[in-house]
């Protein structure tokens, strides 16, 4: 039997063991003992299973219940914050990197639901039961919501992806109406350069839940539960999407 979200598999087995006997009579029935075992198998799965958009096809991204496994195809380069074109090495060896999510986040939002990497291969975004966090491979630091209430009010659905330095997510929110039966459905954009806070986000309201998100260049593609496909053109104005 599979566990929640497909990360674990419970396997029960039963086998019969014939007890040793010193009897030499062929007609003597040897006693049979039953032995049962319960095994728990842990699995990793590709991030594209729940999140079909892949920000960088050069890198393999796997996820477990509380960790992200990233395989880098080569030594990555990034630019510094002054945007002067200076190339900086991430300083990591080619191969697998195991990235543990912050305990403060995963303790309340276990397990991981979505994970994605940006086109540069430098930044990760990961969502659990509520909210999300993002990670810089260069600084090795996570950024979390400063307001725990805002984090609890967001449940990522449909996908999580990057557009330039912005994190795009489909979500349900109850921040304005606490009635659990009347959640709002939104697309939200957050910049990795600012604090994770709703005051720095941009949102577009939808009429039904989001099933899937994808992006092509500067076009966001949204497939919703009411079987509509919507296209959004993304552009920057005064540094904001």
From TrEMBL:
Domain of life: Eukaryota
GO BP of this protein: intracellular protein transport; retrograde transport, endosome to Golgi
GO cellular component: cytosol; Golgi membrane; Ric1-Rgp1 guanyl-nucleotide exchange factor complex
InterPro entries: Ric1 (IPR040096)
Protein name: Uncharacterized protein
Native source organism of the sequence: Rotaria magnacalcarata
Lineage of producing organism: Eukaryota, Metazoa, Spiralia, Gnathifera, Rotifera
